[in-house]
Design brief:
The complex is a heterodimer of chains A (289) and B (213). Chain A is built from nine helices and eight strands. By secondary structure, chain A is α+β, with helices and mostly antiparallel strands. The radius of gyration of chain A is 31 Å and the shape is rod-shaped. The radius of gyration of chain B is 36 Å and the shape is extended. About 2% of the residues of chain B have low confidence. With 213 residues, chain B is an alpha+beta fold. Chain B has six helices and four strands. The chains are: A alpha+beta (289), B alpha+beta (213). Chains A and B meet through helix 1 of A and helix 4 and strand 4 of B.
Chain lengths: 289, 213
C-alpha cells in the first residue's frame, strides 16, 4: 500500500522565476567559450564576470514504499498495547450477532424448543453470522501479500525496487574532465535559464532515463565548489560550482535500459562511490530517515 | 456575677481610654489617611487598603474582545495571505486516508513539525468524513451486494507564509515520514475551499431564487 504524494500543483512559477533571475544575475559566471566582451556589449548593465563555471545537479530521491522494520523493543511494545486494547475493548455488532446465533442454535437443539417463544420476533436469518465469518476467512486466505524484502532485488544496485523500506538516491556515471565519475546527475548552466531549469535538463538528458520527478523547490539545497588544479587554471575559469536541487521520483516509464549507468543507493552506501570532498557536501542535505 | 460585670466595665473603660489616647497620634501622622467622618469607630470596612483586596476577582483576565464578538463574526473567513517573492501564500496541507488513527497521528506530526520549524500555522480543521460503499456483483445473478464500507477521513493544516527556504526541507521530512495508506497533498487555499466546509441550505436557496425571479 504505497502512498505517493499527490502533486503540489498550483504554485505560480512566474513569481519565483523572477526571484531567481535576480539572484542568478548576482552570481553569474560566464562559460569558457562565450566571449565576455560580446556579452558586455549586449547587456545594458555591467555584469560582474566571475571565473567560475556554473552547473546544476539533481538529487533525485525515491521515497520509501513500505514502512521501516520495527526494532524488537517496538515489536514488544506493540504486542503489549494490542493486548491491552483487546482486553479493554467492547464486543462489536458482528461479534454480538455471532454470540446470539450460537445461543439460538443451542436452544434449537434442546428438546423443548418452541419457535413461537422466540424473542424479539426477528426473522430467521438465511445467512448466519458464522457463515459470513467463514466466507471472510476464505477471502483472507486467498490474498497473498507481496514479500516485504526480497534479497536478490536488494543486491541489484540499479533497480528502483531495491530496499523498499529506505529512501534511495540516484547516482549516474558521467564524464567529468578526463575521466568518468559517479556523481549526482548534473548539467552545465546556460544563459537565459534558471538553475532549476538546468537541473531539470540534467535529469531529462540522462540516457534512457524516463524519470518523472517533482522538484521540491526553486532554491538549491546545497553547493559544491571544485577548484581546477593549478595547471589547468586560466583567467576565465578557476573552477566549477555545482548547485544541488532536490526532487522526488513520481513514477518511471517502463522503458529503462538494462545496462544504463545508474545506481540507486542508500545514504550509507554513497560513501563507497563518491569522492570524499564531494561526499562531505552532499551528505549534508540528504536526509536519511 | 457582680465582679465579672465590674471587670467587664473596667476593661471597656480601659479600651476607650486607650483609643482616645491613640487617636490623636493617628491624626498627626500624615501616612495613614483616615476619612474625616469616621471618628472612633473601627467598624468601617477599609477594604481597599486590606492586603487581600481583590483576591477573588478574575474579570480582568478576560480580554475585552470576547464580550464584543457578535455571533455572525465566528463564521467569517480568515484573510487569505498573498504570495510574495520569498514566501508562499496560504497553503492547505491535506492529509487523507481510510484509517482514522493514522490520519490523525500524521496530522499531529505535521503540526508539531511546523511548531518546531517555526512555521506559522493558522488553522487546523477536519473536513467531513466521506463514506464509500464498495459493491460487488453477485456470482450468479445481476444484483450488486455491499461488500465493504470505507470511510475516508480528511484533516487540513493551514499554513500562512511558508518561506521558500524552509519549504524543501519541510516537504522532504513530511514525505519521508508519510505512513502507508495516507495521502498527502499541498495546495493553495481558495474561497471555494472555505465554502465547501459549510452545508448547503436548499430551502434558503429556493427562497432566494423565488425572490430573484
Amino acid at each position: 500500500m504505497a502512498a505517493p504524494c499527490a502533486g503540489m500543483a498550483g504554485r505560480p512559477l512566474g513569481k519565483f522565476l523572477s526571484c531567481f533571475r535576480r539572484t542568478v544575475a548576482v552570481r553569474t559566471g560566464l562559460r569558457q567559450f562565450s566571449a565576455s566582451s560580446m556579452c558586455r556589449a549586449t547587456t545594458a548593465t555591467e555584469r560582474a564576470t566571475s571565473p567560475w563555471n556554473l552547473m546544476a545537479a539533481v538529487c533525485l530521491q525515491r521515497l520509501p514504499v513500505i514502512s521501516a522494520e520495527s526494532s524488537p523493543l517496538e515489536q514488544r511494545f506493540r504486542h503489549m498495547i494490542q493486548q491491552m486494547e483487546l482486553e479493554k475493548s467492547l464486543l462489536s455488532d458482528h461479534e454480538l450477532r455471532l454470540l446470539e446465533d450460537a445461543e439460538r442454535m443451542s436452544r434449537k437443539q434442546s428438546d423443548d424448543y418452541d419457535s413461537d417463544e422466540e424473542d424479539g420476533g426477528r426473522d430467521q436469518d438465511i445467512v448466519l453470522a458464522q457463515d459470513l465469518d467463514d466466507s471472510w476467512e476464505q477471502k483472507l486466505k486467498n490474498f497473498q501479500p507481496a514479500p516485504r524484502v526480497s534479497a536478490d532485488v536488494d543486491k541489484d544496485l540499479s533497480s528502483v525496487q531495491r530496499c523498499l523500506a529506505d529512501s534511495l538516491v540516484l547516482l549516474a556515471e558521467q564524464q567529468v574532465g578526463s575521466g568518468k565519475l559517479w556523481l549526482l546527475p548534473q548539467a552545465p548552466w546556460q544563459e537565459g535559464e534558471t538553475l532549476r531549469q538546468t537541473a531539470e535538463r540534467a535529469l531529462a538528458s540522462l540516457p534512457a532515463a524516463g524519470f518523472n520527478a517533482t522538484f521540491l523547490s526553486n532554491a538549491p539545497c546545497g553547493v559544491y565548489k571544485y577548484k581546477l588544479p593549478k595547471a589547468a587554471r586560466t583567467d576565465s575559469s578557476e573552477g566549477t560550482k555545482v548547485f544541488f536541487f532536490k526532487a522526488v521520483l513520481s513514477d518511471i516509464a517502463p522503458t529503462t535500459a538494462i545496462n544504463a549507468p545508474f545506481m540507486w543507493l542508500q545514504k550509507s552506501e554513497l560513501q563507497r562511490y563518491l569522492k570524499p570532498a564531494y561526499m562531505m557536501k552532499v551528505e549534508r542535505f540528504i536526509l536519511d530517515l | 456575677m457582680n465582679h465579672v460585670f465590674q471587670k467587664l466595665q473596667a476593661s471597656l473603660t480601659r479600651q476607650v481610654f486607650l483609643m482616645n489616647q491613640t487617636l490623636p497620634l493617628f491624626r498627626n501622622t500624615p501616612s495613614i489617611q483616615l476619612p474625616v467622618w469616621s471618628s472612633a469607630t473601627s467598624s468601617e470596612r477599609r477594604y481597599h487598603s486590606m492586603p487581600t483586596h481583590g483576591i477573588g476577582s478574575w474579570k480582568y483576565l478576560l480580554s475585552k474582545k470576547r464580550t464584543q464578538k457578535k455571533k455572525k463574526d465566528r463564521h467569517q473567513m480568515k484573510q487569505i495571505v498573498m504570495a510574495t517573492d520569498s514566501t508562499y501564500g496560504t497553503l492547505n496541507v491535506k492529509v487523507s486516508g481510510y484509517d482514522m488513527t493514522l490520519v490523525e497521528r500524521y496530522t499531529q506530526y505535521v503540526h508539531h513539525l511546523c511548531n518546531r520549524l517555526r512555521i506559522n500555522v493558522s488553522l487546523c480543521y477536519a473536513l467531513p468524513t466521506k463514506t464509500t460503499e464498495v459493491m460487488l456483483m453477485q456470482e450468479h445473478g445481476t444484483k450488486m451486494f455491499v461488500d465493504a464500507v470505507l470511510k475516508t477521513h480528511e484533516r487540513v493544516v493551514q499554513l500562512n507564509s511558508l518561506s521558500t527556504t524552509v519549504c524543501p526541507v519541510f516537504m522532504d521530512v513530511l514525505l519521508k515520514h508519510q505512513p502507508e495508506g495516507v495521502q498527502l497533498s499541498v495546495h493553495e487555499h481558495t474561497e471555494a475551499d472555505f465554502k465547501s466546509r459549510f452545508k448547503a441550505r436548499p430551502e434558503l436557496q429556493e427562497l432566494m431564487s423565488h425572490m430573484n425571479q
